[in-house]
Amino acid sequence: MNLESVRSNSSIALEKLRQLIHEHRHDHEWQFPPERELALSMGLGRRAVRRAMEVLEAEGLIWRQQGKGTFIGSRPVPERQFFGNLADRTNPLEVMEARLQIEPALARMAALRCTGDDIAALERLSRKTVTSSDDDAWELWDSAFHRRIAECAGNNLMLTLFDITQRIRQDPDWRRPRAQARTPERRERAHRYHEEIVRALASRDGAAAERAMRQHLSVLNADLQSIMLGEEEAASPTGQALRSEAGTA
Q1: What's the average model confidence in pLDDT over 57-78?
Q2: Are the C-beta atoms of 17 and 56 separated by less than 8 Å?
Q3: According to the CATH classification, is domain 80-248 in 3.40.190.10?
Q4: Three-state secondary structure readout of 169-198
Q5: Of the residues 81, 157, 221, 242, which has the maximum number of CB atoms within 10 A of its CB?
Q6: CA distances from 10 to 21, 43, 71, 137, 157 (A)
Q7: Residue 8: pLDDT band by 50, 70, 90 thresholds?
């Protein structure tokens, strides 16, 4: 089957899956049949169904959990009373500190556990980010890229921690400074880091994947500081200390 045929079949699968979502949108207990059954019922290959599922998950229309299945809507996060309204009690710089602790470790674990399909999906997601025409699209595909790595790590507790930080980052007030820091040059640089991370994962090099993710997030952290602290404050001893910490984290 040629590439154009695969793309066409994936488009058909995506349309059919969107129809299923529409039909069951009010049934919160409903879950999708296994990929094999979906492919048979649609008369399509599992690869086409899998690709369509990846798009729907990146759009936030479905969520998947290994061993449980695929469900409509966004992945549940712990009840609000469990962790309170963290967005009101933290700030973007603290979230970046948390990401610097969590995501490099997830990348190291993912290098040992990701599959060939995972690598192919990460390559597609990386291309989606660099070709995004606006900040909303960038946020969507960039988040999907980082989340796929978190999923590949195979640790549900760490995945939950990752999801909590992602949920906090969705606050509209928090997205504005990130958008300000996202110049075309910085977007291209982030894409290069994404490619480096994927190469390390494909090589099963956990140390390299961890190092590339840490470098990527450290640079993002410095960019965010330059916006939130202001260039003058960032040049102060306190600002320089924060930059130094980001670069060596």
Answers
A1: 78
A2: yes
A3: no
A4: HCCHHHHHHHHHHCCHHHHHHHHHHHHHHH
A5: 221
A6: 16, 12, 19, 20, 32
A7: low
* In the predicted structure, residue 108 carries a pLDDT above the cut 80: yes
pLDDT of residue 86: 67
pLDDT digits (tens, 9 = 90+) for 163-222: 888 888 777 666 677 777 677 888 889 999 999 999 999 999 999 999 999 999 999 998
3-state secondary structure 17-86: HHHHHHHCCCCCCCECCCHHHHHHHHCCCHHHHHHHHHHHHHCCCEEEECCCEEEECCCCCCCHHHHCCH
Cα torsion at 135, 7, 200, 63 (round to 10°)?
A: 60
Whether the predicted pLDDT of 126 surpasses 60: yes
Same fold, 3-72 and 80-248: no
State the residue for tokens 């982030």. 190
- CATH fold of 3-72 reads Arc Repressor Mutant, subunit A (1.10.10)
Adjacent-strand bridge partners of 63 = 71
Residue 100 and residue 168: Cα distance in Å, rounded?
15
- Answer for the pair 216, 197: CB distance below 8 angstroms, yes or no: yes
Domain boundaries, the chain: 3-72, 80-248
Task: State residue 63's pLDDT score.
Answer: 83
**Adjacent-strand bridge partners of 70:** 64
Encoded amino acid at 185, one letter: E
Least Cα distance to 168 among 60, 55, 58, 83 occurs for 83
Q: How far apart are CA 142 and CA 151, in angstroms?
A: 14
Q: Is residue 77 very low, low, confident or very high in pLDDT (cuts 50, 70, 90)?
A: low
